């Protein structure tokens, strides 16, 4: 994908409704959001504010009811289901609060998994997975299963899995939600380093102000709308 857009992600007038009257739920009421390539953006807001719905739309896991979404200049609404799946597979990485690792698989096997769907050879998969694990500081832990790793190490495996496909953007949903303070700081330092050294765009949901402070820009959601935006001096 090589379009000449000023923004990697651009949402215009995005609305998302669930259900029908009288039980209609307006999760998003008209979101305008632009994210440049290489930005680190934190999204905050109370439960039900629409932040997770917005991230799901950005990650092509959901579709808006109204509005337009451009990813690197490509209008997502004009893509068919297969094209959307391919864009998600090749350009977007995901990191979740619950890690979502295969419990019986090793760290290496967990990181290799996305590459299987890319049709990459076994040798190349292993090479790229080993490199990703080294980048996140887990060299020597390749043969460990999730049960043999700490929570912070499991999240590092999840980040390596997101990295291994060389995505344009990583979407992180409460990436430190299951970690203690020390491990949370380690994960945030890692994400910041990846953003700064590799230019990966990061969009992160968090409810913790100290975690949001690692981002360059903090966007606050309430009742399906963006209510404020802050440019942040990172730690």
UniProtKB/TrEMBL annotation:
CDD domains: ABC_MJ0796_LolCDE_FtsE. Gene3D superfamilies: P-loop containing nucleotide triphosphate hydrolases (3.40.50.300). Belongs to the ABC transporter superfamily. Macrolide exporter (TC 3.A.1.122) family. Residues 9-231 form the ABC transporter domain. One of its GO terms (molecular function) is ATP binding. PROSITE patterns: ABC_TRANSPORTER_1, ABC_TRANSPORTER_2. It holds the Pfam family ABC_tran. This is ABC transporter ATP-binding protein. Keywords: ATP-binding, Nucleotide-binding, Transport. GO terms for cellular component: membrane protein complex; plasma membrane. It comes from Thermodesulfovibrio yellowstonii.
